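User: Hi! I'm working on a homework problem where we have to compare a predicted structure to a textbook description. Could you give me the structure for the chain below?
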Amino acid sequence: MRGNYVTNATVQFQVLSQHQIEEIFYAALESLEISGHTFYTDEGLSLLKKAGAFVDGNRVKIPSALVQQALQTVPKRVSMADSRTGKRVMYLEGNNSYYGTGSDTPWFVEPRTGERIRARYQDVACAAKTIDALPNIDFAMSLGIVQDVPVLTSDRHQFEAMVLNTSKPMVITAHDVVGFADIVHMSQIIAGGEDELKKNPFLILYAEPISPMQHPIDSVNKLLFAAEHGIPVVYTPAPMAGTTAPATLAGTLVMGVAESLAGLVIHQLKKPGAPFIMGGVFTVMDMSTTTFSYAAPEFNLLQAGQTDIAHYLKLPIFCTAGCSDSNAFDQQAGIEAMFSILVTAMSGGNLIHDVGYIEYGSTASLDMLVMGDEIISMVKRFIRGIEVDDDTLAVETIANVGPGGHFLGEPHTLKHFKSQLWFPQLISRTRYDDWFAQGAQTLGDRVHKKTLRILDEHKPVPLSTEVQKKMKDIIANADAKVVKWLK
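Assistant: Happy to help. Predicted structure tokens:
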């Protein structure tokens, strides 16, 4: 019997110490009290004023007590389900990590031609189909903006393209609360009713404040609608150190955390206990190109830092990984994707998006997504760490083999090699002569071949004809209203 024995079950790390986390959190509370934020909805302003916030026009100073109250009522975990079965498949809590794509890129690399094109309905559908086929991609975002349908209702078409081609949980965007309401209605039809969707949700709303310290009308209205209808929401600031946030990383964390907490306060005032996910794409602006960097080392430090703070607050956290500033699917893209995927996994991020992004979040690449799936598989094995117990220590097996022997035929090897060893699907360990004889394919070649195979062969679980028709009716009704309004 061991006494006071400590086991490291997984590989993890923290960027911030406990004292640093507390300093940043308290500074965020102070910022909410002395700087305040701007809100642009009458309902939001009314909720805040009634609760005791100091409202002066659109400027609101939020007392720390309201933040603490919100942290008491918000759930500490969010569970997500498969849209076809209703079975829960993601548990956003603790250090559980799940990976998915990003959304709403204006550009898309057409996988068969390699051409960089404006994203279309069929491209979002192909992205969802690829997501559905990849075992290490846990949830879907659109990985493109649908641009070949009516602009004002493109969010409904985008959701349709996604949900017809994957049953995995999804994080969705909507132009406004009317579009979001239509998407929720379609989701309720798929789930089998409003209560069924609340019990086992398969979609999360993505909403954003605008740094620094602004909460637009559409963002807040969607936030309040999500709270009222029990739809999980991630509220995601995107501050850039040195431009829309202080130049210091600590200052960027303070402001970004405050922006997310301001959203939490108004969300919980609308409906205490509604599911909420803390988020933030915190990064730096490259001062030489003015790009919003998706791969700077500071970006990864900030992702890990906000994860430390979310864990301290016991809130699920939305992070970013598997993306690159490179303009092409190349060596740089591979380096940057691996680094961010490893950092988010080691820090224990929960809902980790943007796998498949290149060109600093402007372009979607299915090859990048397929490679990301392989990297995630490798990182998941690393994160599992080393299991240490009487069986894995293998003292008797070592004695049985003895000096100069081998372990290939040992029962112990047969029992453990599949669970202990990682087997790559795309990364090659082939001997040179065999590799050359097989065509000397690079990783990029193998990735692209797999991408095309998925698009040609994978068949997602379909929705019923009745459900599909009801969804199309909702979308057609929205399109018709836009046409009438434009006339």
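For your comparison, note the following. Residues 249-270 form the longest helix (22 residues). The chain has two domains: 1-385+424-487, 390-420. Good luck with the assignment!
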